[in-house]
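Lab manual, section 2.4: Encoding a predicted structure.

Procedure: take the sequence of the chain (104 residues), apply the prediction step described in section 2.3, and record the output as structure tokens. A sample record is shown.
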Amino acid sequence: MSVSVGRIGGSGNPLGKIISLNPNVSDSNLVLEDEDYMPWISFSLFNDGPDPVYVAVNEDEASSEGPISRGEQMSVDMGTRLIDKVILVCDVGEECSIRLKAKS
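Recorded output:
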């Protein structure tokens, strides 16, 4: 899955930084904000499983639609530094391990 949004304003010049995160996700919201070099321009998320993960970008909660299943990848590219918050969560009683690479 890939989402691309055209330039909307100028939230800052690119910093040329690549950020790598490897969090474990459970049924409690994992909120990524105030991370190094945020806001981000883009990120790619790889779900190593075992369970699906739901993702929200710049929202207050993740949608229950369109989970990223084990072995799947999701990419978001805003075109400029607009990604201030990413929320990750699994269904009740489930968990997964993800790899996230972000560009700032």
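Check your result against the sample. Residues 2-6+21-103 form a domain with the Jelly Rolls fold (CATH 2.60.120.10).
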